Amino acid sequence: MVQIFGTGEGQESPANVTGGVTAGGNSTTLPVAVTIGGVQAAVTYRGSAPGEVSGVFEVDAVVPTGVTPGAAVPVIVAIGGQPSQSGITIAVQ
């Protein structure tokens, strides 16, 4: 499993208080998809990052068994069909 953090996830439900620290449990209202090494990953959590300032989101995903191990495996997070920037990688054992 990997935890991915970012910003720009759009609206959450229930809404967070701007500038407040989140307790977690807020989900993104847009669909979230993750690919790791070009293989679709199962998303187990998508929402506010607990203990972080409102606006930081967390996506937890299971690394698919079909991913070839390596030090620079590409990761793409798509929120509402909009993919993250290219060039993001993780190391997979």
What order do the helices and strands come in, and which of them pair?
Blueprint lengths: L1 E5 L5 E2 L13 E2 L3 E5 L2 E10 L8 E6 L7 E10 L2 E2 L5 E4 L1
Antiparallel strand pairs: 1-6, 2-3, 4-5, 4-7, 5-6, 7-8, 7-9
Overview in brief:
0% of the residues lie in helices and 49% in strands.
Describe the protein:
With 93 residues, this protein is mostly beta strands. It has one domain (2-92). The chain is 0% helix and 49% strand. It is built from no helices and nine strands. Strands 1, 4, 5, 6, 7, 8 and 9 form a seven-stranded antiparallel sheet that branches. Strands 2-3 form a two-stranded antiparallel sheet. It starts with a strand and ends with a strand.
Q: Compute the CA-based radius of gyration.
A: 13 Å
Cα(first) to Cα(last) distance is 12 Å
Secondary structure tally: strands: 9
Query: Considering DSSP H and I runs of 4 or more, what fraction of the residues is helical?
Result: under 10%
Low-confidence stretches: none
SSE order: EEEEEEEEE
